[in-house]
């Protein structure tokens, strides 16, 4: 793995390990471990686990959330790839008069690697969020920064996520 690959992958990993401070769930903001589980398809299938997030939900009654998380994608193809990533997601306005359905937006920065080479991807994404952001369906477009080494990472990306960060502010003790 080249030096720049190691640096970016290491920084994304370290960002998730540090800063995990205990916060009460009733505050509606704070750090949470293992916040997101997802699956999707680009040119190949992948699974996604968010292992640390900072989430902020201003008010459950207004249907908004903002979160930033560090996680890892495992890209399943002929050659296995691991992609540490940093994600930012938000929903700011409910639609159709309800508070449980609204557009969701986000941006991912990921570093897919086979531990010899790596790519750098910037992925803007948009979709729908249901149940106050607990369920999210996104379409994303991968922009490759620099030379692309892996053909199994396509340009178009569809993902389905279960976002446990959306439960912040509830009387559930899943948040540290």
TrEMBL record:
Protein name, UniProt field: Outer membrane protein beta-barrel domain-containing protein
Organism (species): Chitinophaga nivalis
């Amino acid at each position: 793995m080249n030096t720049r690959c190691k640096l970016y992958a290491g920084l994304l990993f370290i960002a998730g390990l540090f800063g995990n401070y205990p916060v009460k769930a009733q505050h509606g903001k704070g750090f949470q471990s293992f916040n997101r589980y997802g699956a999707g398809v680009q040119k190949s299938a992948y699974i996604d686990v968010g292992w640390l997030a900072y989430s902020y939900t201003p008010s459950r009654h207004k249907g908004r959330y903002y979160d930033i998380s560090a996680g890892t994608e495992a890209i399943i193809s002929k050659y296995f790839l691991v992609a540490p990533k940093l994600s930012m997601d938000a929903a700011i306005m409910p639609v159709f008069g309800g508070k449980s359905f609204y557009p969701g937006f986000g941006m991912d920065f990921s570093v897919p690697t086979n531990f010899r080479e790596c790519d750098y991807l910037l992925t803007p994404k948009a979709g729908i969020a249901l149940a106050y952001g607990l369920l999210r369906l996104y379409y994303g477009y991968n922009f490759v920064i620099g030379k692309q080494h892996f053909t199994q990472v396509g340009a178009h990306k569809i993902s389905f996520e279960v976002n446990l960060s959306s439960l912040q502010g509830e009387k559930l003790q899943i948040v540290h």
